[in-house]
């Protein structure tokens, strides 16, 4: 089996942003774990566990990820990304990343993630939030362009969304 590549990872990112769940989940091992060190989330197990966590999010927000840094060695990926979320409803109770949001508000977060690869598929992912910003009612494409302007040179022109 050929080593996992930088371009393979970009295909994964593009499938996430396109909401092409079949392609996105084809990158996951059946017994994948996603560790989000957050007391509300914890460790998600299997493709179904990941899907069950994220699908409700997509009911209330559009999310697009911008790759800022990608390092791939064939068996591991270290990745820094910024995600922009545009909410389509008001969320008061508990908020989102500590912010209360209204319809049309945008939140941006910066996350690092570490992926371990087995047999060409993601076996485990550890993901950690390290910055967050409440942007309010801004243009989503502009928020994405702003992130792209700070990405590693080779990632600045990766197509993110329509």
From TrEMBL:
Pfam families: SnoaL_2 (PF12680). It comes from the Eukaryota. Residues 11-122 form the SnoaL-like domain. SUPFAM superfamilies: NTF2-like. InterPro entries: NTF2-like_dom_sf (IPR032710), SnoaL-like (IPR037401). It comes from Penicillium cataractarum. This is SnoaL-like domain-containing protein.
